[in-house]
C-alpha cells in the first residue's frame, strides 16, 4: 500500500452490521468492464472475432454489443480476459486501439442495481502473465465519493496522485498529460497498473471508475 | 435547466472576491478534450489525416499524439471541431470508432495547472450543425466534487441522473446499460447531449469529466 493512500476502512471483527445496511460482497458489487477493440485492417471483423474466442472467459459474464463488450466477474478473471483479448488482436500485426472502462461499486439503480451506502470492498491487486506486446496508454481514474466514511474525507485528487505514484513505482508511468497519465510497457503491465489504482482507491471509496485508451502497433509510435 | 440539477451557485453582483481565491475564467479553466479516432480500413492513415485537416480548428489549441489528439479552447469551438472531425472520418464509409474525453476544472497540478478551489464556471449549452451521420454511443459522466459549495452538497449520482433526464428530453437517450448510457442519433446530437450534461453539471461542480465511445458504420449495427 502506497503511503499516500488513505488508511483503509476496516470493520472490527465481530462488529455488528447496522440493520438495513447491505454488506458489500463480490457478487453484488458491480465489478465489471467495457472494452471496445478497434483494428485498423480490412480483416478487422475476423481479427476481432478470433480475439474474442482466444480470450479465456472462465468465470465471467461476457456480452458483446455493437459499441463495446461488457465483462463482469472477479477482478483477476476480468483482467486476464482483457489482457488476452487485446494482445490477441495486436498479434495480428495491425494497428489496434482498445478503450477499456473499469467500474466498481456504482450506487446507480438502473445501471448497476447496487444499493447505495454499502461502502468500499477490499480486493487484492491483480497480477497478469506477460503478453510480449508493447503498448502506449492514456489513463484517467475517477474516485466518486460524496461524503467520506469513517473519518476519511473525500479527496479525489489525493487518491489519483496516490495511484500515479503507484504507477511510477511500477515503471509504467511515462508522464502526466492534460487530463490523463501516459503509461508504456507490456499490455499486461499497463493493465496491472490501471487495475491496481482502481482496486487500491476502491478500498476506501465505494464507486470507482477508470478509463484507459491503449494504442498498439501505431505507425506514429516511437 | 432541468429541475433535478442543483441550484446554480451565483456570486451576488459587487460581492468582494476573498483575497487569495483565484477567480474561474475561461482561459485558466482547463476546458479541453482528447479524441481517439479509429478507422477500420487499410486507408486509415489517409482517412484520419484528411479528417484532421477537414475539421475547423479556429480558436483552438490542437496537438496530435500517437494515442489521442488533445484539443483545448472554448466549448463551442471544441465541440464543432469534434463533430466535424468524427463525421469526416465516417463519410469515408469505413467503420469508425471514436473515443471522446471531455474535461473541465481539473484541480490537478501537473495535469492541468488550475489552482484548486476556484469553483465552478458557468458555460452555455452548445448547439451544433447536423452532420447527417448517424451513430451509436456509450456515455459516462463523472462529477468530481469533494466538499460541496455554497450549501450544495456533493451527490454525483444526482448530477448524473439529471444529465440522463436531459438526454431523455433531447431524444438521444436509448437506455441505461451497465456503467454507461446508450445514446443514438446524428453525431452532432449525441455530442450536444454529452456536452450539455458536462456543462450543466459544471455549473455547480468545478471538476467534471466525461467519456463517450461512438460507433459509426458498424457491420454489427442495426
Characterization of the model:
Two copies of one chain form a homodimer. Chain A has about 220 residues and is an alpha+beta fold. The first copy, chain A, has a single domain (about 30-215), classed as Alpha-Beta Plaits, CATH 3.30.70. Chain A has four helices and eight strands. Chain A has helices at about 45-55, 75-90, 155-170, 185-200; strands at about 30-40, 60-65, 70, 95-105, 135-145, 175, 180-185, 210-215. The first copy, chain A, has an eight-stranded antiparallel beta sheet. In chain A, strand 2 and strand 3 (about 70) form a beta hairpin. In chain A, helix 1 (about 45-55) runs antiparallel to helix 2 (about 75-90), helix 2 packs antiparallel against helix 4 (about 185-200) and helix 3 packs antiparallel against helix 4 (about 185-200). The longest helix of chain A has 16 residues, at about 75-90. The first copy, chain A, is globular, with a radius of gyration of 18 Å. The model of chain A is unreliable at about 10-15 (pLDDT under 50). Chains A and B meet through strand 1, strand 4, strand 5, helix 3 and strand 8 of A and strand 1, strand 4, strand 5, helix 3 and strand 8 of B.
Keywords, separated by commas or semicolons:
homodimer; 222 residues; alpha+beta; Alpha-Beta Plaits; eight-stranded antiparallel beta sheet; 4 helices; globular
Topology overview:
The structure is a homodimer of 222-residue chains.
Chain A: E1 32-40, H1 44-54, E2 61-64, E3 69-72, H2 75-90, E4 95-104, E5 134-143, H3 156-170, E6 173-176, E7 181-186, H4 187-201, E8 208-216
Antiparallel strand pairs in A: 1-3, 1-4, 2-3, 4-8, 5-7, 5-8, 6-7
